[in-house]
UniProtKB/TrEMBL annotation:
Cofactor detail note: Binds 2 magnesium ions per subunit.
Gene name, Swiss-Prot/TrEMBL: dinB
Originating species: Mesorhizobium hawassense
Residues at the catalytic site: E148
CC annotations in GO: cytosol
Residues that hold Mg(2+) according to the record: D54, D147
Assembly behavior: Monomer.
PROSITE patterns for the chain: UMUC
Localization terms from the record: Cytoplasm
Residue ranges of domain UmuC in the record: 50-230
Name of the protein described by the UniProt record: DNA polymerase IV
Length: 442
């Protein structure tokens, strides 16, 4: 059956059934074969090749899979009342719960929710299983996070005996049957619109945006739908009277670039559906970071320092495992009223050393420790590169070489006897404060 599908023999506007994959022969509302209403139809259905796949409420879906008693209950995955929501199932989302929301607020909105502590080791394992199934479709897989990726399915019809649209539908079935979770898929001619399409009709969604309809579709959307338009830029555009993408489509590239610099060129292109970025399976991570939310707000520098040191060591360990280094150190703080502060400093050379990350972060932290109470502290590095040129000898700080050698010796002991086998004076005896639960990683 699938061999026949290699060339789309039916009218693409008749499409196929997502449940039994049968090609349709009319515009009926239900499948000709199985009666399912889950049909996919589109004029460009068999010509589109770029896909975005996103697992539905990933962490919560895994917890429900592993505990059937949670199936029909609202589930929130995250820290305790002082933490934040990592993800929420769709039952909880209906009541207003969202990722990154403070836990106390989420429980005010959904007091009957079951709160489950994150189990990152389990989630990473399932994420790898999903990734393996993606890579069985095509080697052109560009991961964006643990639970989503872009795929370029061009040239895979002969391999699979069916066009990419059907390959995606079969993939979604496979994930659901073999892994017990669901995914949503977006199909288009470019990454920008494939990502937008995957957000429609979640969970278990399958949406298509074609090239012919792209300008008119985008014209009706708010500017915040454009990749890269965050709160700050959206506010700037709002002040300039620009709210809808249709307004950007009527503007000249030069005018947009004079107003918004390099971002102006992106606004011009994406507002018109122009996105030539390839799916890059070797795409590099943009940053590596670690953060933790405190059980009680902390203002004292002496209490923040051991936490900063512990997080710096975690970031350093990840950099070393990955063979990369970062040139910019970024400090992240969240005040007790949930206002976010980020401070960064660019180094002369890339680093992967915990001591250098910590010392730079400490200098930034001292400037912020003015009596303000903080509920969250994070540290990370960006501007990543390979570690070949990381941490050259410092002719000014002659002690840096000794500290680097000491850190190397500590790494060796930790690799052999565990992370707590040896500690610095900053963290020794500080307990959980210096060794918070495994934080989120970018």
């Amino acid at each position: 059956m699938f061999a026949v599908m290699a060339a789309p023999v039916n009218n693409p506007e008749h499409g196929f059934c997502r449940d039994c994959l049968a090609l349709q022969h009319s515009q009926t509302r239900r499948c000709d074969r199985c009666g399912s209403p889950r049909l996919v139809r589109h004029a460009e259905l068999y010509r589109l090749r770029i896909a975005h796949i996103d697992c539905d409420a990933f962490y919560a879906a895994i917890e429900k899979r592993d505990n059937p008693a949670l199936k029909d209950r609202p589930v929130i995955v995250g820290g305790g009342r002082r933490g934040v929501v990592s993800t929420a199932c769709y039952i909880a989302r209906i009541q207003g719960v969202r990722s990154a929301m403070p836990m106390f607020k989420a429980l005010e909105l959904c007091p009957e929710a079951v709160v489950v502590p994150p189990n990152m080791e389990k989630y990473v394992g399932v994420g790898r299983e999903v990734r393996a199934l993606m890579q069985a479709l095509t080697p052109q897989v560009e991961p964006l996070s643990i639970d989503e990726a872009f795929l370029d399915l061009a040239g895979t019809e002969r391999l699979h005996g069916m066009p990419p649209a059907l390959v995606l539908a079969r993939f979604a079935q496979t994930v659901e049957k073999e892994l017990g979770i669901t995914v949503s898929a977006g199909l288009s001619y470019c990454k920008f619109l494939a990502k937008i399409a995957s957000d429609f009709r979640k969970p278990r969604g399958f949406s298509v945006i074609g090239e012919a309809e792209a300008p008119s579709f985008l014209a009706a959307q708010p500017v915040t739908m454009i990749w890269g338009v965050g709160k700050a830029l959206a506010a700037t555009l709002e002040r300039d009277g620009i709210r809808m993408i249709a307004q950007l489509q009527r503007m000249e590239r030069g005018d947009l670039m004079r107003r918004y610099g390099v971002m102006g060129d992106r606004l011009y292109r994406l507002s018109r559906g122009e996105d030539d970025r390839p799916v890059d399976p070797d795409g590099d991570a943009k940053s590596v970071s670690a953060e933790t939310t405190f059980d009680t707000d902390i203002a004292a520098l002496a209490e923040l320092v051991p936490v900063l040191r512990g997080l710096s060591e975690k970031v350093s360990a990840r950099l070393k495992r990955s063979g990369i280094a970062g040139r910019t150190v970024v400090l992240k703080l969240k005040t007790q009223d949930f206002k976010l502060r980020t401070r960064n400093r660019q180094l002369g050379d890339p680093t992967r050393l915990a001591d250098r990350i910590f010392q730079t972060g400490l200098d930034l932290l001292r400037r912020e420790a003015d009596g303000t109470k903080f509920r969250l502290l994070g540290i990370g590095v960006s501007d990543l590169s390979d570690d070949e040129k990381a941490d050259p000898p410092d002719l000014v700080d002659v002690q840096s070489r000794k500290r680097a050698l000491a850190e190397s010796a500590m790494d060796t002991l930790r690799d052999k006897f565990g992370r707590k086998a040896v500690e610095t004076g900053y963290t020794f005896g500080k307990g959980r404060a210096a060794n918070p639960p495994e934080p989120l990683e970018e």
